[in-house]
Amino acid sequence: MLHAEGLVKRFGSRIAVNDVNLRVDPGSLCGFLGPNGAGKSTTLRMVVGVLPPDGGRIQVNGHDVWSNPWQARQGIAWLPEGAPMHPDSTVSEFLRWSATLHGMHGPTRNASVKAMIDRCALGEVRHRMCRALSRGFRQRVGLAAALVTQPRLLILDEPTAGLDPAQVLLFRQLLQSLKGSTTVLLSTHVLAEVEAVCDALVVIDRGRVISTGTPAHVRRQLGVSVRLELEVDDSVRAEAALQECGLRLTHRSPCADRPWCEITAEGEISPEVRGRVAQALARDGVALRRLDIEHGPLEEAFRRLSVVEP
Question: What is the pLDDT of residues 242-255, one digit of tens each?
Answer without folding.
Answer: 999 999 999 999 98
